[in-house]
Amino acid sequence: MRRSRGGTIVLTAAAVLAALAVFLPVWWVFVSSTRPGNSYVDNMAPLSWLAFVPVGGDLTNYSGLLSGPFLTGLFNSFLVAGLTIVFGLAIAVPAAYALATIDFPGRGVVFTFIVLVAMIPFDAIAIPLSSLFQDWHLSDSYAGLVLPALANGFAIFVLRQFFLGIPAELLEAAEVDGLGRIATLWRIVLPLSKPALIGAGMMLFLSQWQAYLWPLLIGTSPERQLAPIALANLSTLFTVDLGQIFAGSFVLTIIPMVLLLFFQKQYTESLSTTGLKG
């Protein structure tokens, strides 16, 4: 009992320290975003506890930020991420279902290829791919922003592993009742796969939400800029408004954090199934 209680205390303390290590930098960015201009440096050298207390600040930086091009970039980021989730899942779900339930020749080779390709950093192929997109007249378009993120190998991997965990007897019973593969997927498998769908959707969302190099290479106009590009443009050769940059950084950070907290249970459940079957 004492050992168990002591282990619980140690693990709890470690979890609290890890949470603080993640939370404090985000909180510091928020506090700095409430201060005008570069005044945040007043409490940084030497470091003072006032750097973490929003005393005398306001939300002027946020109102200024959201009255400029950043608001358009934020809308575009939501639009591109939403399209990526919808069309990305439309590709990943049938691909994962086929890899999990259809015993076709070379299935293992195809799955291995998908996983290996997913491990290649996208930045390694972004430059030659952007040249192809320009030749295909897809630069400066929403299609050019969305297409490279649709075939997400990690999303296919998560969904396949979850589908493998669905009892084979359930699928066989659906087949006996006369349901085809597509009907079984739509009426039996997908209703059971909410955690995996949320997990795969979050992967697709994060891949687009944090994208910077590809939107930069594809040459989007101000009307189609994503939020990270709009945020980077706040720093110019002659002016750097760090207050608004901090505000934009906090907005871009807090949105995926809120989504992860809201879907924490389903997202964790989807990831916990990925190593159960091969």
UniProtKB/TrEMBL annotation:
<feature type="transmembrane region" description="Helical">
    <location>
        <begin position="7"/>
        <end position="30"/>
    </location>
</feature>
<feature type="transmembrane region" description="Helical">
    <location>
        <begin position="142"/>
        <end position="163"/>
    </location>
</feature>
<feature type="transmembrane region" description="Helical">
    <location>
        <begin position="242"/>
        <end position="263"/>
    </location>
</feature>
<keyword id="KW-1133">Transmembrane helix</keyword>
<feature type="transmembrane region" description="Helical">
    <location>
        <begin position="74"/>
        <end position="97"/>
    </location>
</feature>
<protein>
    <submittedName>
        <fullName>Carbohydrate ABC transporter membrane protein 2, CUT1 family</fullName>
    </submittedName>
</protein>
<dbReference type="InterPro" id="IPR000515">
    <property type="entry name" value="MetI-like"/>
</dbReference>
<feature type="domain" description="ABC transmembrane type-1">
    <location>
        <begin position="74"/>
        <end position="263"/>
    </location>
</feature>
<keyword id="KW-0813">Transport</keyword>
<feature type="transmembrane region" description="Helical">
    <location>
        <begin position="184"/>
        <end position="206"/>
    </location>
</feature>
<dbReference type="Pfam" id="PF00528">
    <property type="entry name" value="BPD_transp_1"/>
</dbReference>
<dbReference type="GO" id="GO:0055085">
    <property type="term" value="P:transmembrane transport"/>
</dbReference>
<dbReference type="GO" id="GO:0005886">
    <property type="term" value="C:plasma membrane"/>
</dbReference>
<keyword id="KW-0472">Membrane</keyword>
<keyword id="KW-1003">Cell membrane</keyword>
<feature type="transmembrane region" description="Helical">
    <location>
        <begin position="109"/>
        <end position="130"/>
    </location>
</feature>
<dbReference type="InterPro" id="IPR035906">
    <property type="entry name" value="MetI-like_sf"/>
</dbReference>
<comment type="similarity">
    <text>Belongs to the binding-protein-dependent transport system permease family.</text>
</comment>
<keyword id="KW-0812">Transmembrane</keyword>
